[in-house]
Design goal:
single chain, about 350 residues, alpha/beta, Rossmann fold, eleven-stranded mixed beta sheet, five-stranded parallel beta sheet, 16 strands
Length: about 350
Amino acid sequence: MKKYFFFLLYGKIKIEKLSNKKYLVKKLKINKSEFINLYKIIDGRIYTDCNTNVAYIKGNKLIPKISYQQNKHSLGSLKYNSTLQKGTPAFKKKMIGRVFSLVQGASGSNYFHWLFDLLPKIEILYKNDYLKNIDFFYVPMINSFILKTLRPYGIKKKQLINSSDQKHIEADEILTFEHLYFKKGNWHNSFETIPKWIILFLQTKFIKYKKKISIKKNFFIDRTDSKFGHYKIINQIELKTLLKKNGFDFIQLSKIDWYNQIYIFNNAKTIIAPHGAGLANIVFCKKNTKIFEILIKNDSQRNMYQNIGKKIKLNYKKLIISNNKKTNDDRNIELDISILKKIFTNNF
């Protein structure tokens, strides 16, 4: 019943059959040899399910290239966009002015994806002196780390539109880029193609904002504070005892200010951590910092942090462990302490 109500209210969505070149405004410079297309839709709409779909719409036509749809962990063709079947099932909010869109399904609300997929788009606008042309920014969510990363650009909270609250907007002008590196194929495999310029940009832009905090140079990142259920260590007491004995701190990043996080990673000698978005901060590490990433066997081919580590010359190693059989979520971990004992014996 809900679907038919919104079909009546906003109409059915069809695929734009003409080339989306008519929406191309100009090419903006990334660096001396690379450029990116900037697209503009006049009196257009955006709908997102905050999960796997984003639709850019003009005259009830779904625009290719910039619309986004995942299909079984891969980038799907436009025919898989949910709006073709479900329409735009959320009330529309009209924005007066120019809106730059940073939404790309659910992934943008993840810390890693904000840093590596979305924030670089702001940097491109900034380097091309284009930020002054934007009135609002359509973002996956609004929280502390997003606000702090936007502060150096002079972007205020009042300029942000939270797509988690406003899933459907219309604006005088909508501007956006394509995804910076995910063009086709499997979502996880795409991380191996993260351009080096993104990594170097994050280092250059933000390391200068680091704030000193009293934490040891060797530490373990605990994920039990994460809103996501996977990669949480269940034998915490045993783990903490071993870490303390070997001079390691045991930290939760959610309890540490973002500028302090930059400092502790930039100051680190050794980091041990289960796979998770917090490891995105290794981008702030110095050359030769030791990184030990814990992965279960089923996830052993995930190479995002290995790729980043290679490009900035970190001493990165994977710790592959067997899937846990004692919990309902097989990505919760009862960590075999002997694995860490070997690390301490062989590396310290």
